Amino acid sequence: MRLLKGILLVLVTGCSQASLVPLFDSQPLDQVKPDVRALNRCQAESQGYPPYPGQLKMGSKYDQGQASKDVLDEKAARRYQSQVSAIYSYLAFLGQVTEYMRKPDPAIRAAAKECFSMAVASWAQAGALTQKDASKQGEAVRKWFLSALAMNMMKAQALTAWQVSEEQRDWLRLLADRVQIYATPRRQRMDLYNNHDYWSSWAVMAAGLVLDEPARLSWAEQGYWLAIGQITPRNGGVVLPREAARGKRAEEYHAFAITPLILMAEAGTRNGLPLYEGDGQQLHALAAQVVHFWAQDGKGVSFAQRQVAIDDHKMAWWPVYAHRFPERLPLPAGDADRFGSRFTGGSLAGLWQATP
User: What values do phi and psi take at 233, rounded to 5?
Assistant: First the structure.
C-alpha cells in the first residue's frame, strides 16, 4: 500500500508538467462518415474477443529444470498457449484494426477508429488483467499486454485522432500501477534484472505517453539506465549478460530485449530526455550486434551453442531505430512491415512524417 501511495503521489505531481510529445507523428484524418460495410464487419468480428475473465496464473512454457530456460516443455507450452490464447488473439485483433487506420481511404480509417473504440471499451469496462493476484508469468503477460495496448492506442491517436475515454484512462492507469508495483522491487536485484524489466519500464512509459503523465516516463527512465549499464563488451561486440545466458536462444533474447530499450530511447528523445547520449551511446553497439545476430553473418559476438534463428517479428525495433539513424543500420530492401510484433501493436514503420 505504501508503494502504491508513493506511485500515486509522484503521478499527481508529475501531471502538472507540460504535455508529452507522442511517440508517433499525427497524420490527420478527414472528417468523413465511416464505411458502413467495413464498420459492420469489424464490429461483428470484435464480438469474438470478449474481455478476458481468467486469472493471471500462467506458468512458463520453458523447462524450469534448465538454468538457461531455453528448452520448451511441450506440455507446459500447450497449457500456456491455452491460458493466453484469448489475450493474444485480442491483441492481434487490435493490431489488425490499427493497421486499417493506415489505409488511404478516409472512410475505411474512420470505420477502424470507431471499431477500435468499441473493442477497447468492453475490456476497459471489465477492468481486464488488473487483478492483484498474479503469478510471475502472469505479471509478464500483464506488462506485454500493457505495452501492446498502449502502443495500439498511440497508433490510433496518431492515425485517426482517436481519444481515450475516462474509463479507459482509469483502466490504463491501474494496469500501469500494477506493473510498477511488481517491477520496482526488482530494481534492487541486478542479478535478476533482465528483458522482463526492460519491458516493464517500456510498458509504463507507453502508458504514460497515452495518459500524458510525465512521472511514468521518469520511472521508466530509471529502469532504462539500469539496462544500459548491463551492456557489456565481449569478443568484438557487446552483449546483455542475462540474455547471453539463454543457451540456444541467446541471440533471440537479445533481439527481444533491445526492443523496449529502443522504444524508450525514441520516446525519451522526443520528450527531451538524452537517452541516446552519454552511456546511452552503447545502445548503438547493441543494435548493430543484434542486426548481426539476425543476419547470421558471424560478425561480433558468437556463442558456443548453435542459435535459434531470429524471426522478423522480434526485430520490431528496427524501423524505429532506422528512422532516427538511417545512416547507421538502414533497413533491408523490401517490406519493412514484416518487422512487427504483437507486443508493439504490429509494424511501426511509416508512423513518422519527417526525418528527425
Answer: -65, 140
